[in-house]
Predict the structure.
Amino acid sequence: MKAVLVVGARPNFMKAAPLMREFGRRPGIEALLVHTGQHYDENMSKVFFDDLELPAPDIHLGVGSGSHAQQTARVMTAFEPVLEEQRPDVTIVVGDVNSTLACSVVSSKMHVPVAHVEAGLRSFDLRMPEEINRMVTDTLSRFCLTTCADADENLRREGVADERIFFVGNAMIDSLLFYLERAARSAVLGELGLVEGGYALVTLHRPSNVDDPAQLAGLIGVLGRLSERMPVLFPVHPRTRAVIDSANIALPPGEGVRLVDPLGYLDFLQAMRHSRIVVTDSGGIQEETTVLGIPCVTVRENTERPITIELGTNVLAGIDPPGVEAAIAGALDSEKRPHTVPPLWDGKAAGRIADVLERHLSK
Ligand code: UD1
């Protein structure tokens, strides 16, 4: 079986790494890694290849940034000849970024079956580009590989036949569990003068939080007040950094809020594991904090990962700064919530994915 595995942006790399490792162990599988180049900065891409021991991409499409249409179109145009030449038995796409959508469309039109890792997640919010990417990708996927039962339900409700749905667990958690021990050797906390359990970790990059300078300034104000209780570590996504710089957003005085460049995978894992609280608008971090049992305040109106609220440590705060501030105070001042790790978030998802693909596609 020949597979093309597509990665494009930061949240894809930790889902692809366990798959590449698993495929490498199976003589019946030949896997080619294609990097679209949606993310290209050293600290958004290269450091993840190093930390996650991902092999260098076999093919790099080098598409870079642009509007949604431009970026998607560039990935499609560059990916088509790759499929022409390689003629794989399956294209594997992960997550919900523009590269995921672009490659599923190209692949389907060339009659190469698509396998979607992390299928079926829905925020039911079509203002999110990721929701559109998820819906289109799942509609086209022969193999909808899901992380939780509610994703299976979402797919069924959209008319996806049971034969296309495979509950395999969470490949991102494969990486988390695999690298936790190695992350413990990271020196990041010492370098930043942070003590275990004594700081907040923040990430913000969603358009709804960062594209409007007034909204972002409001959230940064909340972080300033939080920093009166504990240091706040804030690794800043390039999209967020661009708005802070161009709109000249005032940063809280003093050293309380530490804005640093995006961290690598192992440093981030270490920083997350030992934080007192995480404040984020990321999708993946809601899942990682659920497994680690770290209180997570999600700065969004909705989540495509409700299981992190039902079983995990996540709370939805909305995006209004006063509501976010109240949710943070609530999480800090109440007892830690009991949490359960969701079924099949056990470090073995990649093996189950490889089993599904081999069962259906091996010649
Ligand atoms: C993308 C994904 C989002 C994911 C996020 C994680 C889509 C629609 N969105 O959003 O789901 O949560 O990645 O990071 O695919 N930039 C750089 N260097 C880089 C990459 C981006 O400077 O290496 C800047 C560019 O100016 C670009 C902006 O960041 O315009 C946004 O990048 P883009 O890939 O369009 O989307 P993200 O906001 O990163």
Q: What stands out?
A: The radius of gyration is 20 Å. The first helix runs from residue 10 to 25.
